[in-house]
Amino acid sequence: MQRPPANTFNLEYLHEITNSLDEISKQKLKGVILTSAIPNIFSAGLDIKEFYKPDLQRLENFWSSVQDVFIKLLDLDFATAAAINGHAPAAGCVLSLSCEYRAMVNGNYKIGLNEAALGIITTPWIQAMMYQVIPMKHTETALTTAKLFDVDEALQIGLIDEIASNKEDAINRCKQYIRKFDKIPLHARALTKQRMRQTPIKILREQRDEDIRMFVDVVMNPSVQDNLKDYVEKLKNKKKK
Ligand SMILES: CC/C=C\C/C=C\C/C=C\C/C=C/C(=O)SCCNC(=O)CCNC(=O)[C@H](O)C(C)(C)COP(=O)(O)OP(=O)(O)OC[C@H]1O[C@@H](n2cnc3c(N)ncnc32)[C@H](O)[C@@H]1OP(=O)(O)O
């Protein structure tokens, strides 16, 4: 990913990712590694500008495009791994959860689902992605407290699989993970993976319209917009301090 300054997902970038995923799906790949070309930031999640004082039509398109990306990512036949070379809050974390394996570079980085701190809530399919990786009880506490884990905590709780010394090491560990499937028939691997992930995939496929409606309702709530205003201000003012 290379969308400076923070690899945030806006509508256009989501379309680019969808197109890339469509393109790679046609190829006979062994696996895919997601990483960032931006030092210290894997992805800062959704672009807050998309849902602070939004245009309604664009907001609906935006969430529908978020759904497209994650339906495709969760469903990829081949192995997926994330070399997390920096912060991965919110949708940055969700992106890594869509992969089967996560190696995170050691450093003063945070990963987790902090949506509640913005006054928004995680959708059921995102919750399912989290509790398929870490236990339900930890998921509930992490989501309700908007917990961002440091690298050691993330390993301890199982949110990441390994700690890497740098980006290259993280990518190598991802490659090693992908090589594990060299002798496994692709079809069996893909079907097993898709069955294991059927909860978020099913919710995404069968409740798309309802999910968009809930997203729009939550985001357009005046108190949520007030929270987002404060959050955007806080992000802007960080630099001035
Ligand atoms: C039933 C369900 C119904 C409804 C559901 C509702 C919602 C859907 C739920 C969940 C989906 C996911 C949501 C999200 O992803 S929301 C986004 C959350 N992201 C964050 O909170 C991260 C915010 N950013 C940071 O904390 C820091 O930037 C970070 C630690 C990542 C990096 O810090 P660093 O000091 O290295 O850089 P900064 O100077 O802070 O940032 C650089 C630059 O980037 C801008 N920035 C950062 N993050 C965002 C963002 N998410 N959106 C837009 N812009 C962002 C930041 O302002 C700086 O800009 P500039 O000053 O112009 O350089």
TrEMBL record:
<keyword id="KW-0443">Lipid metabolism</keyword>
<protein>
    <recommendedName>
        <fullName>Enoyl-CoA delta isomerase 1, mitochondrial</fullName>
    </recommendedName>
</protein>
<keyword id="KW-0413">Isomerase</keyword>
<keyword id="KW-0007">Acetylation</keyword>
<dbReference type="Pfam" id="PF00378">
    <property type="entry name" value="ECH_1"/>
</dbReference>
<keyword id="KW-0276">Fatty acid metabolism</keyword>
<dbReference type="GO" id="GO:0004165">
    <property type="term" value="F:delta(3)-delta(2)-enoyl-CoA isomerase activity"/>
</dbReference>
<comment type="function">
    <text>Key enzyme of fatty acid beta-oxidation. Able to isomerize both 3-cis (3Z) and 3-trans (3E) double bonds into the 2-trans (2E) form in a range of enoyl-CoA species, with a preference for (3Z)-enoyl-CoAs over (3E)-enoyl-CoAs. The catalytic efficiency of this enzyme is not affected by the fatty acyl chain length.</text>
</comment>
<keyword id="KW-0496">Mitochondrion</keyword>
<dbReference type="GO" id="GO:0006635">
    <property type="term" value="P:fatty acid beta-oxidation"/>
</dbReference>
<comment type="subunit">
    <text>Homotrimer.</text>
</comment>
<comment type="pathway">
    <text>Lipid metabolism; fatty acid beta-oxidation.</text>
</comment>
<keyword id="KW-0809">Transit peptide</keyword>
<dbReference type="GO" id="GO:0005759">
    <property type="term" value="C:mitochondrial matrix"/>
</dbReference>
<dbReference type="InterPro" id="IPR001753">
    <property type="entry name" value="Enoyl-CoA_hydra/iso"/>
</dbReference>
<dbReference type="InterPro" id="IPR029045">
    <property type="entry name" value="ClpP/crotonase-like_dom_sf"/>
</dbReference>
